[in-house]
């Protein structure tokens, strides 16, 4: 089954996009001379999608492994090309675990997400150099 979204112009350079979940998100970009923003940057949302996809995997896998953590976050940074069309040529994904019961299980959950389950990660692999790292706090 194919996913379908609709993105609707809301005036200026602001758009609202729906999602098969029924939720919506506003998107816009920096406009010279304008300080107010109404939405999220489409390119940065790609990084959020990557983090969200992998985070869902990692937490689901840790739950199945019955491995407890106190907190978890993913930081993703991307380097854009200088020339248009600008795209992320390198992306770094940092997995941060806090109060991890078992670091080995955390590393395994991350590896499973990277290698097997995260479809967004696989899409990124098609056009960018990906680097990942685990951090335990």
Automatic annotation (TrEMBL):
Single GO molecular function: peroxidase activity
The enzyme's E.C. designation: 1.11.1.-
Main EC class the enzyme belongs to: oxidoreductase
Keyword match Oxidoreductase: yes
Origin superkingdom: Bacteria
Pfam families (UniProt xref): OsmC
Keywords in alphabetical order: Oxidoreductase, Peroxidase
PANTHER family linked to this entry: PROTEIN YHFA
Protein known as: OsmC family protein
